[in-house]
Amino acid sequence: MTLLSAADAARLPAIHATEGIAPxxxxxxxxFFTPWTNWTWYGIExxxxxxxxxxxxxxxxxxxxxxxxxxxxxxxxxxxxRIERDIHFKPSRLGAIPxxxx
Length: 102
Description:
Layout: H1 6-11, E1 27-28, E2 30-33, E3 40-47, E4 52-58, E5 62-68, H2 69-74, E6 84-85, E7 92-93
Antiparallel strand pairs: 1-7, 2-3, 2-6, 3-4, 4-5
């Protein structure tokens, strides 16, 4: 599976484009997750040149930051499992996503 489709990439605003928007009102365009742990990445902004996202990462901590599409594609878990894109995820305000505590 392609982690970032062309349609998803086209919807993502540029890096820094949502700086003036309150955290809970930022719109998450894509969601990635590990099927073998509780790590989740919510992509809010994207730089297609660097292939880098800005978004919310939920792992050992919950924090806003930058993460790389190349790194997500390179991660391998047990039995060769890979990071997956939530194909059922619909763009949503961050504050409206169940289980996300800001």
